[in-house]
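Technical note accompanying the year-one report. For the benefit of new consortium partners, we illustrate the data format agreed upon in the data management plan: each record pairs a sequence with a structure-token string. No post-processing was applied to the example shown here.
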Amino acid sequence: MINWIPVLDSTRVVAIAYDAQSETIYVRFPNGSEWRYESCPPMTWEEFSSPAASKGRYIAQVLNQRPHGPLTS
């Protein structure tokens, strides 16, 4: 089960989550789509989830360089 954290200060992302065991970041977008970003060690999650981080910019510059794709149930 994914424990989503609401993101209130972003127009590009509505919720985020992290699975430390698999080192996967999960992102829910305003259109309802959910994506997974793999090979994300805890430091990457800390940077991404920081209140100061622009979620959209971080996805474009860092997370999209890692294995990623739509989340399928």
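Partners are asked to follow this layout when depositing records. The chain is about 20% helix and 25% strand.
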